[in-house]
TrEMBL record:
Pathway: Capsule biogenesis; capsule polysaccharide biosynthesis. SUPFAM superfamilies: P-loop containing nucleoside triphosphate hydrolases. Keywords: ATP-binding, Capsule biogenesis/degradation, Exopolysaccharide synthesis, Kinase, Nucleotide-binding, Transferase, Tyrosine-protein kinase. It catalyses: L-tyrosyl-[protein] + ATP = O-phospho-L-tyrosyl-[protein] + ADP + H(+). Belongs to the CpsD/CapB family. InterPro entries: Bact_polysacc_biosynth/exp (IPR050445), P-loop_NTPase (IPR027417), Wzc-like_C (IPR005702), YlxH/NBP35 (IPR033756). GO terms for cellular component: plasma membrane. The keyword ATP-binding applies. Its EC number is 2.7.10.2. GO terms for biological process: polysaccharide biosynthetic process. This is non-specific protein-tyrosine kinase. GO terms for molecular function: ATP binding; identical protein binding; non-membrane spanning protein tyrosine kinase activity. PANTHER family: FERRIC ENTEROBACTIN TRANSPORT PROTEIN FEPE, TYROSINE-PROTEIN KINASE.
Length: 239
């Protein structure tokens, strides 16, 4: 089976938008999937020899392709290796982070960007050492406009110490302008491309869209499973 799907698109399981994602890297740290997340982390590090990669955006071409599962587990993996990680849920239309970590979403990115809360009183601790999160906050009517005010830069700059890393989960490129907006504020972007699910034309469209705004595309992660997290395999392809 090839990486791209030539037939009518088959979606991945969409339970994450209802229940949150499966934190395999936390629940099953010795599993093969957790090891693959560590391998991906190592490969990203090899592409960051100068150590200047302090913020990463994770996206996909279209919805239900596993980018929220990947971003959350990547955040857990980095945190378990001693990095101080902040996971930001910038998918304000289909948020998952508050469900995945079972925390309040009364305040979040939307309230920070709208000026109704500060970063300090919005960021939340998790049960995982070194990992804090900024949830999406209440779903706003104007998510793209909020992101366009560039206040997300303040969040990224807030966590700019040598051991800090900000991972931003954004909506799929082909559905909203949000990913293009955020890509100009982060150090690098990673695509999640499920094997046999992503359509080549749609993936190419997404990449071209980000190139138009000069996004730094670090590479792609291929998620080989279309059924459930326990059978996933992740491979990282650098640009």
């Amino acid at each position: 089976m090839g990486l791209f799907n030539k037939s009518p698109k088959k979606k991945l399981n969409d339970d994450s938008s209802k229940f949150g994602v499966n934190l395999v890297a936390e629940l099953y740290p010795t599993s093969s999937v957790s090891e693959q997340f560590r391998t991906v982390m190592t490969n990203i590090s090899f592409a960051n020899i100068n150590g200047d990669l302090k913020s990463i955006m994770v996206t996909s071409s279209d919805p239900s392709e596993g980018k929220s599962t990947f971003s959350a587990n990547l955040a857990v993996t980095y945190a378990k290796q001693g990095r101080n990680v902040v996971l930001v849920d910038a998918d304000m239309r289909r948020p998952t982070v508050h469900k995945s970590f079972n925390i309040s979403n009364q305040k979040g990115l939307s309230t920070i960007l709208s000026g109704n809360s500060t970063i300090e009183d919005t960021i939340k601790y998790t049960s995982i050492d070194n990992l804090n999160v900024i949830t999406s906050g209440p779903i706003p009517p104007n998510a793209s406009a909020l992101l366009g005010n560039r206040k997300i830069v303040d969040i990224i700059n807030k966590f700019n110490k040598p051991n800090d890393l900000v991972i931003v989960d954004v909506p799929p490129v082909n559905t909203m302008t949000d990913a293009s907006i955020v890509s100009t504020t982060v150090d690098g972007t990673i695509f999640v491309l499920p094997q046999g699910v992503t359509e080549k034309k749609r993936a190419k469209m997404a990449v071209e869209q980000l190139k138009k705004v000069n996004a730094n595309i670090l590479g792609a992660v291929m998620n080989m499973s279309k059924d459930n997290m326990t059978n996933d395999y992740y491979y990282y392809y650098s640009k």
